[in-house]
Amino acid sequence: MQMLRYLCAAAALLAAGSCTNPAPSAAKTEPDQTTATTTTETQPAPRTSHNCAPAGKMLDENAAVWIRSREVLVAITADSSTYDPDYGDSYRVAEVYDTRDCSLIERKVLPVNVSPDFPYYVAEISYNNVHQMAAIRGFRSIYLYDAENKRWLPEFKPKYISARSGGDAQSGMIQRLEVWEDYLIGYAQDYGAFVFDLGNKNQPAPVMPFAEFKSSPVDYQSVFMLPVEEGKYQAIAPGYDAEKGTLNANPLFNAPMPLKLEVQKSAANNRFLVLRQNDAANTAVAIDVSKRRLVNLPQDIATKPTQDILAWMRNNS
Questions:
Q1: Residue whose C-alpha is closest to residue 210's, from 226, 228, 199
Q2: What is the pTM of this model?
Q3: Contact 93/110 with Cβ under 8 angstroms?
Q4: In terms of CB atoms within 10 Å, which of 49, 57, 82, 296 comes out highest?
Q5: Could you give the CA distance from residue 139 to residue 142 in angstroms, rounded to a whole number?
Q6: Distance CA 17, CA 300 (A)
């Protein structure tokens, strides 16, 4: 009986404890669950179109460029401020718009492009959404708009390794601009290809040809050696197709190659160029500069001295 009383008293104490110290409820555990839950915000995809129209007059063949990732529209227009009494409309106003609300970010009047009736053109290149820049080409000058930092870079002009002299008034006119990797590549009529390094957005640096061949007073073929990584290079020999209006960077190597670039200046200014890989075998690399192509050397020729390789190339071109 005494044991029964003891068990009943213990049960009563347990019951009382359960009333004064209740177990954690669902309401108590919710804050912890909420804290552990992370909300993931989905970034909206870039728009595929906009409704903005530049205020000035535009040429039909001079379409504006939309840098979609930055919601920036760049156009070349003409208005009363550039009208010339002798030549009429002068298309040299660069307008930049924010396509989120079509507000004008900047209006820049460019210098006369050789003649008031020579328009500037927004370059039709495919790189603007990658590098977030738009290019304006004049007759002999280039302007870049940096959409990321909302600014124009200083005017720059093509640089060549040797003096150029054209055949007529159109010589030297920039025909096309393209971008390959981090390089701006261009072609000027009768003057040939030129390259700028876009690695420094503040001031694109000219890249001089490693080799150049002049087959006529208005025919220059150039090979540029572009450093890709430590000790390795990619060679490009740009070519312009006047009928199609296309410019091809024309990389010569399937992959960057370790090269020794120590050659005499005279050797770099011939049709045929022989370089050596920086390997134990001192492997020869042969380029036909005139045809802008890599030459596949037979195995028994590739191991010969440079002069023997050059002789073989002349005999088999």
A1: 226
A2: 0.80
A3: yes
A4: 82
A5: 9
A6: 98
